Amino acid sequence: MSISVLPRTQASSTNSRHFAPRSLLPLETESCWKIETGVVRALSWLEDGTVVTLGLWGAGEIVGKALAQIDPYQLECLTKVEATRLETDNWLQTQSALLAHIQQAGELTLIRSHRRVDMMLLKLLNWLGKKFGRQVEQGQLIDLRLTHQDIADMLGSTRVTITRTLNQLEQQGLIRRLSLQRIVLQEEEVWHYEI
């Protein structure tokens, strides 16, 4: 199956919408969302209320209830988001979209498989840096405003444990925390730490 996404110039302007940080993308069975700008988190939760992050999606990626047979399911905007609504009869790109979802699920499963929280956290920060970061003089800037609770939800940990582990990683010089919940990953030292 091949991708046939309408180019942005051909998409109806009524299909493109803007969403505020921490707002939810509407879930409709007859459509998906193509993220134009920003970052969206797919999530679910267990019976006890534990939040489970299923994936993080950025510009050019497609998200929607049609791609996840999980209930409950939500799409939360982590940043300001512009997204274009794609009707299911207009998008035959399920193969690429599904492959991206499967790949990300595998990557996050592998990250969560580490036994030590510090390794899980370093792997997650490295993954976030590759997916959403940019190179700066000091390392890889993860310019994504994730709370300690967001990170805990992604790793199946607690906010207190993540806060403590971030403090330890910063003391070891593996990361540097900046204002507005941004992190610089000191790449060279991370590889040394992983060996």
UniProtKB/TrEMBL annotation:
The keyword Calcium does not apply. Residues 115-188 form the HTH crp-type domain. It holds the Pfam family HTH_Crp_2. InterPro entries: cNMP-bd_dom_sf, HTH_CRP, Tscrpt_reg_HTH_Crp-type_CS, WH-like_DNA-bd_sf, WH_DNA-bd_sf. Keywords: DNA-binding, Transcription, Transcription regulation. The keyword Transcription regulation applies. This is Crp/Fnr family transcriptional regulator.
